[in-house]
Design brief:
- It is a single chain.
- The protein is mainly alpha-helical.
- It folds into 3 domains: 3-39, no CATH class; 115-206, Cyclin A, domain 1 (Orthogonal Bundle), CATH 1.10.472; 217-301, Orthogonal Bundle (Cyclin A, domain 1), CATH 1.10.472.10.
- Helix content is 54%, strand content 4%.
- The chain contains 13 helices and 4 strands.
- It has helices at residues 53-57, 59-62, 93-108, 113-132, 137-152, 161-176, 182-189, 193-206, 216-226, 231-246, 255-270, 276-283, 287-300; strands at residues 5-6, 20-23, 29-31, 37-38.
- The chain has a 4-stranded antiparallel β-sheet with strand order 1-2-3-4, covered by helices on one side.
- The chain is elongated.
- The two termini are 42 Å apart.
- It binds a DNA duplex (17 and 17 nucleotides) through helix 8 and helix 13.
DNA sequence: TAAGATAAGAGGGACAT
DNA sequence: ATGTCAGTCTTATCTTA
């Protein structure tokens, strides 16, 4: 799934935050702060806006879908976002405004109300998490996107909101290469890791998301700074990980464990006196895991 | 005290039934 | 849909240097 957002930062009509997001697939606009969904595409810009030709032509402002041919995975709103008729011709101005009124009604109809409430709850929690986990806006927006899709598919029903939200957040982190573990997320929202994990897998399956495997190197800096390791050790560990990657002994292993073991091995090679325990604590894995990976690395790399 | 070894148990993926 | 199996990680405990 393509998570492409543009025109971030315009003001939400409901909560006032500058966090409107455009979904390039469906062309919908919604608020990353409170979840408010807007289907209009011109009026939303605020009362001070004038309708010059530039504004209408400027695709980056109106959030025109980049690919109308892209299938929507059954998630499109009842009234589609493209201002074109069935033959692909643009609608007349009169028709356009009519359709847009209908879309507005569509988004306000009763069907959306519980969804709406769910959103507010989820997004206020998300706002709290943002600060706690030091997350970027991009990650938050992706989370909002994923969560909204999950909600539309009815995946939240029967599951806890924080659980699914946490899963969406974790997915967003994975997707954006932000090194946050399932443990980080689950401990912050007070949901068992197991549950978040289950929701996460569900999201991957149901929303057809493709997540890259986290590069252990991403975790290295974090562990190294927590355990106060030297620059030299870090560099050495980096080459170890790269070599390990080439030998294909990294698949299926916990990236965090691998990164921790590489750092430990590097410490030993560099003659630094760092215990397994310190690194294990910093990495959030057990000493045993480090030992196992450490052994594997040593054998495979003939050190 | 740090590191290594061993064992039991949980959770999930692959695969067959 | 359900059960089994191999592999991974965690926790706990004991031994070794």
């Amino acid at each position: 799934m393509v998570l492409q957002t543009i025109n971030i930062g315009s003001r939400c009509a409901r909560c006032g935050k500058e966090s409107m997001i455009t979904d390039n697939v469906t062309g919908e606009r919604f608020c990353g702060g409170c979840g408010y969904v807007i289907i209009e595409r011109i009026e939303e810009s605020g009362p001070e806006r004038t309708f010059s030709k530039d504004d209408i032509d400027n695709k980056s402002r109106t959030g025109s879908p980049t690919s109308l041919a892209m299938h929507d995975m059954g998630l499109a709103t009842i009234i589609g976002p493209a201002n074109k008729d069935s033959t692909g011709k643009p609608l007349t101005a009169a028709m356009k405004s009519t359709i847009e009124r209908l879309r507005t009604w569509d988004s306000r109809s009763q069907v959306h109300e519980p969804v709406d409430r769910n959103f507010r709850q989820a997004f206020s929690e998300l706002d709290r998490l943002k600060g706690k986990l030091a997350l970027s806006n991009v990650v938050i927006e992706k989370t909002a996107y994923i969560y909204r899709k999950a909600l539309e598919k009815g995946l939240v029903r029967g599951r806890s909101i924080p659980g699914v939200l946490g899963a969406a957040l974790y997915a967003a982190c994975r997707d954006g290469g932000t090194p946050r573990t399932l443990n980080d997320v689950s401990s912050e929202i007070n949901v068992k890791r197991k549950d978040v994990s289950r929701c996460y897998r569900l999201l991957l399956k149901e929303l057809d998301l493709k997540m890259p495997v986290v590069d252990p190197i991403k975790y290295m800096a974090r562990i190294a700074s927590k355990a106060e390791l030297t620059e030299k050790v870090k560099r050495r560990a980096l080459t170890i990980l790269q070599d390990a990657n080439k030998m294909e002994i990294t698949s299926g292993k916990d990236p965090m464990g691998l990164a921790a073991a590489a750092l430990y091995l590097s410490c030993v090679l560099c003659g630094e006196n760092t215990t397994q325990k310190v690194i294990a604590m910093a990495a959030g894995v057990t000493e045993v895991t480090i030992r196992n990976r450490y052994k594997g690395l040593k054998e495979s790399l003939k050190i």
